[in-house]
Amino acid sequence: MATDAKYLDPAVLAKLQGLALRARRIVEGYVAGAHRSPFKGFSIEFAEHREYAPGDDLRYLDWKVFGRTDKYYLKQFEEETNLICYLLLDVSQSMTYQSAGAPMSKLDYARCLTAALAYLVLHQQDSVGLVTFDNETRAMVRPRGNPSHLGDLVQVMERTAAERKTATGAIFHDLAERFRRRGIVVIASDLFDDVQTMMAGLEHFRHRRHEVVLLHVLDPAEVDFPFQETTLFRGLESMPDVLVEPRSLRRAYLKEMEAFVRRLKRGCRMHQIDYVPMRTDRPVDVALSAYLSARR
Amino acid sequence: MFLLALGITNLAMLGWLAAAAIPVVIHLLSRRRYREMPWAAVEHLLAALRASRRRIRFEQWLLLVVRMLIVVLIVLAVAEPHGRGGGFLSAPAGARTHRVIVLDGSYSMAFKPGETSRFDQAKALARRIVEDSPRGDAFSLVLMTEPARAVVAAPALEPGELLREIDNLALPDTSADLAGALARVEEILAAARREQPGLDRAEVYFLTDLCRVGWTAEPDSAAGRAVRDRAGRIAQQAALVVIDLGQAEAENRAVASVQTDRAPATVGETVTIHAVLRNFGRQDRPGQDVELLVDERRAAHKTLDLPADASRTVVFSHRFDAPGPHLVEIRLAADALDVDNHRWLALEVKDDIRALVVDGRPSGRAIEGAAGYLAVALAPSADRKTGPAIQPEVVPESALVERDLGRYDAVFLADVAQFTAGEARLLDNFVRGGGGLAIFLGPRVLADRYRRELGGKDGLLPAELGAVVERPGGRLDPLGYRHPIVRPFRGQERAGLLTTPVDKYVKLDVPAGSDATVVLATSSGDPLVVERPWGLGRVVLVATSADRSWTPMPLWPSYVPLVQEILAFAIGGRQAAENVLVGQAIAGEAPGAGPVSIRTPRGKNETIQPSQEGLTAVWRFSDTTASGPYVARFETPTVSNQLRAVNVDTVESDLTKLNESALRGEVWPGAPLAYQTTWTDSPTTRPATIARRSSLARPLLYAVLALLVIETLLARRFGRAGAEANSNDQVSMTKE
What we know:
The complex is a heterodimer of chains A (296) and B (736). Chain A is of the alpha/beta class and 296 residues long. Chain A contains ten helices and ten strands. In chain A, 39% of the residues lie in helices and 21% in strands. In chain A, the strands form three sheets. In chain A, strands 5-4-3-6-7-10 form a six-stranded mixed beta sheet, with helices on both faces. Chain A has a two-stranded antiparallel ribbon with strand order 1-2. In chain A, a hairpin with a 3-residue loop joins strand 4 (127-133) and strand 5. The longest helix of chain A has 25 residues, at 246-270. The two termini of chain A are 31 Å apart. Chain B is an alpha/beta fold. Chain B has five domains: 3-80 and 698-724, no CATH class; 87-247 and 656-695, 3-Layer(aba) Sandwich (Rossmann fold), CATH 3.40.50; 253-349, Immunoglobulins (Immunoglobulin-like); 352-576, 3-Layer(aba) Sandwich (Rossmann fold), CATH 3.40.50; 586-647, no CATH class. Helix content of chain B is 26%, strand content 30%. The longest helix of chain B is centred in the first third of the chain and has 38 residues, at 42-79. Chain B has 14 helices and 35 strands. At the A-B interface, helix 8, strand 8, strand 9, helix 9 and strand 10 of A face strand 2, helix 2 and helix 14 of B.
């Protein structure tokens, strides 16, 4: 409970209570009475088989197929028509950065964001899943709709240590294949990766008709570059160290960051992806409320 | 070419140019001092670095160059570079000039080629220089006397103030002190640069008769080199104008010296007065009138011929009938330079000369004891017409402390074994006050006691006493008869000075650098008679005895005249102190502690207070810039006068002058110099040859100021501007 409270500050979440997460477009699945659904029933109809991956629920393992082929396959069912939200949390080393002026690291901020969203989704009886990733998938929790599921999600978030590089492109492609049911994919990351590769991965989600929300989490220092004294910047994620005189470099750096964000925005616009910038010095509730209000 | 036109005043300051490396060092040090922090967006940082590496390098170099330039320019400004000659370095029209006027104050400037003296002409020219100068110019005034005097040192901006000073200037009777005048000028220029930076250039005017004796020193001497160095430095800082007021064919005659055969004289004694007259001109002067004045009354008159560039001695005899101070004056017929046609002598005339003879080996019988012969030799005759009245008083050595030495003119010590500290102090005071002391040694003398009480650095003994030398043999050496004590023996072989036998004497050692003079030496070169001045008096030390114990000299014909000459010389110290040259201080023993009134030759009365020196009250007066008699008047304990005579140094009487080429070659070799014979402010005659001097210190400081502003702006633009940029410069983090 203490862990939950860390990310689910009641004061924060109270502000989100009235906000329903709604799709802008028709997605597969609405809460009965509240959504129109093209599907019937609840987890009853078999759809297809899929190869087992670590983290999958063993209850759905098809023992008959295993008996015949000696391979693990999962039975895929046409599931409930509820909204499914996939939360993708970047746990690469670059997310651990926290400047002197920021209240928390980017990773902690992203954890808050994803936890808050998970709570909201669960609170409206929808399902939410979680994937933590860096240059590979570190943990994956399948979407569930029961309220106790939140504890599992938070536990996974906590457990994951940030120590590797980011490589989003391959991960996104893989996840796009795994997320069979259409839903909302919310990615919380600093996106310090090759934009083109990353965009190709995001496009894959869109191709699978997921709605994608990109929460771009940045430290204020990464946005403002306020440094005055000569500084040796020690590169995270195996990047080299750089000794610079920040005042003379600031303009060029800001220009470079501007171009990076612009490329991101353009890519998102092209693929109809929600791009949401998040500064870690901005309260989580304010940032999230602003975004969700806009969605309504 | 530009650099050739530059001069540097403080060349040593250029060493500080190394400080230009400070910005580089700070830059390198700042690269070594940095903070560290982890960073996620390294890729973007590297991209920014790649994109702006050249620009940053350029900016850093630019800032570094500007900062180094600031240091360089500050150092250059402090080094005070200045430009010479024309071109842009010349002071612009309307520039303010500091004019330093140097008036030659040597007495040769009193020469009157016509109605007015050279000095009056110089004053008139100085007035015109001031009056013709544009408003805003500043003036300083130096009088080239001995010693040179800055009459107005700080640049006077008000011409009226300087004109008043010029009008009030009186010509003293001193020589010219060129080195001192140049030193004053250099000090004035340096102070003006410091305190009056608004003065753009400087000009130095020398108004002089260019007398060679005043303007040249031995070229290879230290003084000559110092004068040339200083003159060269002044030429670098200021334009030089020499206005020559001298006349090449100026004739002059002077009384070069006056002296008596003995002093003090005694009442009734016939005193011989020798006066040396010199013709410094190129024409013979026959039939020159020479007068002897005693106490301002004509006492005798003679006529003599003075050949060109030669000296002649005229001898007068005079008998003084009253005791006290008497003023003797030799006067030559007037010429264009009158100040050196007079010479004065202050002569003390006494009723008799009192000598205290201290016998170290007293005896009950006459001519015995150590001082018997000495007393006889001091007063061989009672005839006042042939010699001075000398009253020797022989006492045993124990009586020395009991006597009031102030009553005696001389003290003779004959074979006195030793002295107490009190006796030594009495003798020291006696000689310092002008008394004469003659010391004859002998068998009883304890050399170490002499050394302890009278010798050493602070003792009056002219030589250190060594071992006794026996049977030296050979003839005495009069050392060329140069000394006044032995001079009368020249050509008087029968007097027997050289053959005087000396069986024993104490070896005397004259310390190196001492002011003592060896009067007479033995054949082996050991000093036999040594003298030295001590305060106002003199000490004579004789290495052998005054009686026959060490030498049969008392029986020799040379003994009486030698003792007489020793006495005359010993008591002549006071006379020498009473007759000095212009500029030297006059002094004397004050009878009381009350104030002393000094009447100068120009009729001015000044009151001074005597000071206590040892047991004696001494008065001293140093403002002796006028030649002639000075009278010191005392009111306590009784009314009395003391007379002093101050005379000109006749080297300045030689009016031979430097011509223009000699001036350029000997005083200012190679320096730009304007030589003129009068003052004109016309641009055609004025300073084609004058090197203008314009200090570059101020433009350099302006440049430093500009560079400081530029540096601030550049630093703000290159660095701080980036840090203080507004939100427009920040990454746009708005939602898409």
